Amino acid sequence: MKTILSRVVLSAAMLVGGSVLAMAADKEVHIYNWSDYIDPTILEDFTKQTGIKVVYDVYDSNEMVETKMLAGGSGYDIVVPTDRNMQRLIQAGVFQPLDKSKIPNLQYAWPEIYKRLETYDPGNQYAVNYMWGTTGIGYNKKLIADRMADAPVNSMDMIFKPEVAAKFADCGIYVLDSADDVMPAALNYLGLPPDSKETADLEKAAALIESVRPYIRKFHSSEFIEALANGDACIAFGFSGDILQARDRAAEAKNGVEIAYSIPKEGALLWMDSMVVPKDAPNADAAFAFINYIQTPQVIAKATDYVNYPNGNLESQKYVNPDILKDTSIYPDPTTLSHLYTTTPNDPKVQRVLTRLWTKVKTGS
Fold first, then answer.
1. Where does the secretion signal sit in this chain (predicted)?
2. Which has the closest alpha carbon to 63: 174, 175, 176, 178?
């Protein structure tokens, strides 16, 4: 869902007083985050209010984050890994506990989301949620209706039921190239625990995906965004925000393509990207100042409006664009939210099995 951007440095000389944010004007905060994942004016406004320069680097995979963090000496004050990767890094001891006295805006934490976050950060000691989302079905309304008037667009039948998937093979089915996201969906569809580590369960999930492999045009990272937006794909299984980005691009292009996103009725993976502070952060105080700033309800609402993802700040919902807040594909209703599941990291043995099965699924051999 990301494309690598060049390094951006935003700075300002103004220093504004304040208990948590009052810091020397020559301080910097170095942030490592996904690209296209924050409104640049948020960084500019933070600098104006604090005098702290923001040095903002971006990445396109969690593996890049893990490599840098495990090597140490990254120079970053804040990184934003995704749940399971973050948990592995917490267990490796590379992050420092939050100084919550410097993050008073944690008072606005959304209990339901932070309860889920505890799956990866027991006791919520290290991480502050930035954004979260789901992994589900994006589809071209017209292309689907033309091929199947009663298509089950709210179900993983669209991808996992061979007689249904076959109807859309000609217009393009794209599936996320991520075993960590697709295999749990297959397990869940089969009525098995989505976080199962049992080889027999994983083999059943792989067999399910193999049964529809002839109808999948491509296993993708983010290429499907343009494919959906311009009408070259009819279905994509991927991250909610990416699919909504495709929807918005199509609308802006006025090309007649109408994209929708569905959270499968069977349930979906709830993923989380959270801010953590490396143990060797050069400027931890600046890190906590930035985390507190972005957790200001109006500020994190602005971030949500920019990226089309929900955030873990409950108070911010008062300020989120009403069209986004009422869109249940972004902010699920309570019943749907209760059906979302989380998964945990695999040990090396399970990961080897998963990698072998996923390679077999993709290559068909």
1. 1-24
2. 178
In a domain, residue 2? The reply is: no
Give me 140's structure tokens: 């071209």
Q: Which residue carries 């320069």 as its tokens?
A: 53
Instruction: Report yes or no: 188 and 343 within 8 Å, Cβ to Cβ.
Output: no
123: left (phi over 0), alpha (psi -120 to 50) or beta: left
DSSP for 121-151 reads: SGGG-S-EEEEEEEEEEEEEHHHHHHH-TT-
The reported pLDDT for the residue numbered 20 is 43
CA 349 to chain centroid, in Å, comes to: 26
Claim to verify: residue 141 and residue 256 sit in the same structural domain: yes
Same domain, 158 and 40: no
Instruction: Quote the CA–CA distance of 345 and 19 in Å, as a whole number.
Output: 39
What is the reported pLDDT for 9?
35
CATH number of the domain encompassing residue 313: 3.40.190.10
Q: Helix, strand, or coil here: 229? A: helix
Give the ranges where the chain is alpha helix by DSSP (H).
Answer: 40-50, 62-71, 83-91, 111-117, 141-147, 157-160, 162-165, 179-189, 199-212, 224-229, 240-253, 284-294, 297-307, 322-325, 334-338, 348-363
Residues 350 and 263 in one domain: yes
CA distances from residue 43 to 31, 53, 301, 310, 354 in whole angstroms, order as listed: 10, 9, 14, 19, 39
pLDDT in tens, 222-261: 788 999 999 999 999 999 988 998 999 999 999 999 999 9
Domain carrying residue 327: 8-126+272-331
262 shares its domain with 297? no
In a domain, 287, yes or no: yes
Q: How far is 62 from 60, CA to CA, in rounded Å?
A: 7
* Residue 7: per-residue pLDDT: 37
Whether the CB-CB separation of 104 and 297 falls below 8 Å is answered with no
Q: Is residue 153 part of a domain?
A: yes
Which stretches in the chain have pLDDT values below 50?
A: 1-26
Question: Would you say residue 116 lies in a domain?
Answer: yes
Amino acid at 20: V
- Taking the complete model, does pTM exceed 0.70, yes or no? yes
Its sign, for the CA torsion 356, 64, 228, 309, is positive
Domains: count for the chain: 2
Read off the pLDDT of residues 169-183 as tens digits, 9 standing for 90 and up: 999 999 999 999 999
